[in-house]
Write a structure and sequence with these properties.
The chain folds into 2 domains: about 210 residues, HUPs (Rossmann fold); about 180 residues, Elongation Factor Tu (Ef-tu), domain 3, CATH 2.40.30.10. It contains 8 helices and 18 strands. Helix 1 runs parallel beside helix 2 and helix 3 runs antiparallel to helix 4.
């Protein structure tokens, strides 16, 4: 009987995943990770870890499986939170959930699970794994979950073949309503618990307050850029495969502004507390349309904003991923220099997949979308798919 260690978080998803594994005949062990202690900036009532561990223990007791806890908070701070602070300080917006999966759940957690004798590890992610045999070698495919509303493959976009080889995702073939139904039928303590939100293992936060643990507040100007600003525009179509490198660079270059391009609309408490595409927290009213962040200048502490979803600086044609920042789940399919692929791409969780072309060049990968994309954000991850298979991903540079 194979021994599976499941990350039991105190939520309904991992609880049902544990139940399903036991039903399938695995020898199941529950391991709860405690990864964060500091409550500065965390909104009250958002499932603090001490409440999570009680629910996880109740589920383990109900399922009659061994229950263990591990404190990985020091490693989590070093690998995930410190990286977050560093990126925000540079005016970039990291994705801590992607990092948490790569660095903690499928690395540190796996090492702890193996100490418990694990043959496999499991989580409550809505995703699937399939095995291929290519010339005698096993290749693992990462597929979207069957529930399109809950598909979490994007959060797993930085996993490796080695990490996938030891992983099981029991919820990949079912949808969220079925998970809730199973939890109720089995009388699991987590059946009615709401889903966790916010930063992985930290919870929902007041981001500026959270970031002020390391980043100082600093008053600066908020400059509104008018809609009629002269920017390059591109049609809703693909460029030809033989498009020049200069054109690719032009299509992926973000618009850059100077304070003289607009007018002062207000003040802010630190440009590094914001992200491109952000609407909330600008705290300037009385405009015909809502204001959105369109550019950050952290060096001079200037926040550039514009009115409306259709502001020309908010919508871009493409993005660039530098060489070395790309990651291939399917290493056997890694793009060769000068290759061009048509793929489906998403640049944030829950975004519908977008049609795009990938252009591999010596300096990196240019991704050009069929349609303009709102709020392309440096520091986030772009993930590319072939139908429902996630092939690779990369950190957005610009």
């Amino acid at each position: 009987m194979k021994k599976v260690v499941i990350g039991l978080s105190g939520g309904v998803d991992s609880s049902v995943a544990a139940y399903m594994l036991k039903k399938q005949g695995y020898d199941v062990i529950a391991l709860f990770m405690k990864n964060w202690h500091d409550t500065r900036g965390v909104l009250k009532g958002d499932c603090p870890w001490d409440e999570d561990v009680l629910f996880a223990e109740m589920v383990a007791k109900k399922l009659k499986i061994p229950f263990h806890t591990i404190d990985l908070s020091e490693q989590y701070r070093k690998r995930v939170v410190d990286y977050m602070f560093s990126e925000y300080e540079k005016g970039r917006t990291p994705n801590p959930d992607v990092l948490c999966n790569r660095e903690v759940k499928f690395d540190l957690f796996v090492k702890e699970a193996k100490k418990l004798g694990a043959d496999k590890v499991a989580t409550g992610h809505y995703s699937r794994i399939e095995e291929l045999n290519i010339e005698g070698k096993t290749i693992y495919r990462l597929l979207a979950g069957k529930d399109s509303n809950k598909d979490q493959s994007y959060f797993l976009c930085q996993l490796s073949q080695e990490q996938l080889s030891i992983s099981i995702f029991p919820l990949g073939e079912i949808d969220k309503p079925e998970v809730r139904k199973i939890a109720e039928e089995q009388n699991l303590a987590t059946a009615a618990r709401k889903d966790s939100q916010g930063i992985c293992f930290v919870g929902k936060v007041d981001l500026p307050v959270f970031l002020q643990q390391k980043l100082k507040a600093k008053k600066g100007d908020t400059i509104e850029i008018p809609k009629d600003i002269d920017v390059l525009s591109f049609p809703n179509s693909y460029p030809d495969d033989d498009v020049s490198d200069e054109k690719l660079s032009e299509m992926t270059r973000p618009v850059s502004f100077d304070p003289s391009d607009g007018n002062k609309a207000g003040d802010h408490t630190g440009a590094h507390f914001f992200t491109v595409g952000q609407r909330k927290g600008i705290n300037i009213g009385g405009k015909p349309e809502p204001l959105f962040v369109i550019q950050l200048d952290v060096k001079n502490n200037i926040l550039f904003v514009g009115q409306g979803h259709n502001h020309p600086a908010l919508n871009r044609k493409g993005l660039f991923i530098p060489r070395g920042e790309d990651h291939w789940i399917r290493e056997d399919l890694k793009m060769k220099p000068r290759e061009t692929w048509e793929m489906l791409v998403r640049i944030r969780y829950r975004q519908p997949l977008q049609k795009a072309k990938l252009f591999a060049r010596s300096e990196g990968i240019y991704i050009i979308f069929m349609d303009l994309q709102r709020g392309i954000t440096p520091g986030q991850f772009a993930a590319w798919y072939d139908k429902d298979e996630l092939i690779g991903s990369g950190v957005i540079y610009a």
